[in-house]
Amino acid sequence: MIDEEAPEVVFLDIRMPGMTGLDVAARLVDSPKPPHIVFVTAFDQYAVEAFEHSAVDYLLKPASLDRLEKAVAKLKARLKAPEPALPTAALQALLAQLAGGGAAVQASAPAPAAASAPLQWIRASHGEETRLIPIEEVIYFQSNDKYTSVFVADGESLIRTPISKLREQLDEQQFWQIHRSVIVAARHVAGTKQDFRGRLMVQLKGRPEQLVVSRNYVDLFRGM
Asked: Coiled-coil regions in this chain (predicted)?
């Protein structure tokens, strides 16, 4: 449809059945007249800062009307320019970065983006403000009703991503699932011990609480 209609602007979701939004963008960037692309994503591993410092735009789900209006205003300003500068170079650089620092996403063989680009930032609600938390600062994640709690050294924030989906976005070498509702950062594990009930407990660096390891994940700590 893009080939047939030749639009000036394309809003692309990143996670789609079949080709991903990045795969589509990789094809468009090589076309004779690539459109302006606005990525739509619910996943912070796609480097929000990269979007903010490039010529393309992004909308983070759930997109507010105010944020959408700003994106449209920016697009209108570009399109009104005497010769609208299409962000080909910036888009190529962004695609390379989102693919993990290597070549741009291969259009012929779409691959799951989460596998090549582990989560780097967490956009989380903390009271009335929104925090952008580097993944290195996260001590553990815990399922919390409709939300997932993100625990760092100085407190707790909330995200809407279910822990099952979150697990797919994390580097499994750096984050260990120890319970169906808990994922802990390996770098923040101080050690383990058994409580009076015989349960294996994870002790943390920087936080006083101890986390229960369910029987399904005990083997992860054998030899510690």
From this structure: none
Tokens of 191: 């050690």
Which pLDDT score is estimated for 94?
62
Burial class (CB in 10 A: 0-12, 13-18, 19+), 124: buried
Distance CA 129, CA 111 (A): 34
27: which residues sit within 8 A by CB, 6+ positions away? 107
What is d(CA 189, CA 211) in angstroms, rounded to the nearest whole number? Answer: 10
Domains of the chain: 2-116 (3.40.50.2300), 121-221 (2.40.50.1020)
* Angle (CA) 25 119 35, round 5°: 15
Q: How confident is the model at residue 189 (pLDDT cuts 50, 70, 90)?
A: very high
Q: Is 165 helix (H, G, I), strand (E, B) or coil?
A: helix
Contacts of 16 (CB under 8 A, 6+ apart): 24
Whether 123 and 48 have beta carbons less than 8 Å apart is answered as yes
Interacting residues of 59 by C-beta distance below 8 A, sequence separation 6+: 11, 38, 39, 40, 41, 67, 68, 71
Q: 224 or 122: whose pLDDT is higher? A: 122
DSSP secondary structure letter of residue 44: G
| C-alpha to C-alpha distance for 85 and 36, rounded to whole angstroms | 9
CA geometry: angle at 167 spanning 172 and 186, to 5°?
Answer: 40
